[in-house]
């Protein structure tokens, strides 16, 4: 017998459900070499604001953002202090560009 606090609980929520803005553009797909499950932070260069920070699953990730424009992406591993910063990435609808990160 499974007992829960409320019927239907626990509810699983994707981390992407926390951002109510629709994704209208994509940055290049990142192929992260030599590191699994990196932390990826995306910064909007026009506003200087952090769009999001997420620990990815695996080595490939294509960031989606709420506006076209130029972004900085920081790929890091907090356990080893490894950090790579890529500036001036263009976010466009249907972006098919790929970027290797080592």
Features:
102 residues, mainly beta, globular
Count, helices = 0
Q: Count the strands?
A: 9
The largest beta-sheet arranges its strands as 4-3-7-8
How confident overall, as mean pLDDT? Answer: 91
How far apart lie the N and C ends?
49 Å
Strand content: 35-45%
Order of helices and strands: EEEEEEEEE
What portion of residues is helical?
Answer: under 10%
- Shape field: globular
Q: Which stretches are low in confidence, meaning pLDDT under 50 for 5 or more residues running? A: none
Largest sheet, in brief, is: 4 strands, antiparallel
Radius of gyration over C-alpha positions, nearest whole angstrom: 16 Å
Structural class by SSE content: mainly beta
Give the topology.
Blueprint: E1 25-26, E2 29-32, E3 39-44, E4 50-55, E5 60-61, E6 64-65, E7 69-77, E8 82-91, E9 98-101
Parallel strand pairs: 2-9
Antiparallel strand pairs: 1-6, 2-5, 3-4, 3-7, 7-8
Structural notes for this entry:
The termini are far apart. The mean pLDDT is 91. The chain has strands at 25-26, 29-32, 39-44, 50-55, 60-61, 64-65, 69-77, 82-91, 98-101. It has 102 residues and is mainly β. It contains no helices and nine strands.
Quick overview:
The protein has 102 residues and is mostly beta strands. It contains no helices and nine strands. A four-stranded antiparallel beta sheet has the order 4-3-7-8, with no helix packed on it.
């Amino acid at each position: 017998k499974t007992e829960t606090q409320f019927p239907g609980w626990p509810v699983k929520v994707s981390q992407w459900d926390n951002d109510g803005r629709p994704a209208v553009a994509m940055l290049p797909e990142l192929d992260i070499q030599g590191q699994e499950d990196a932390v990826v932070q995306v910064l909007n260069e026009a506003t200087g604001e952090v769009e999001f920070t997420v620990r990815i699953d695996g080595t490939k990730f294509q960031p989606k953002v709420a506006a076209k424009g130029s972004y900085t992406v920081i790929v890091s591993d907090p356990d080893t202090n490894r950090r790579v910063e890529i500036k001036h990435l263009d976010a466009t609808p249907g972006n098919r560009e790929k970027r290797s990160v080592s």
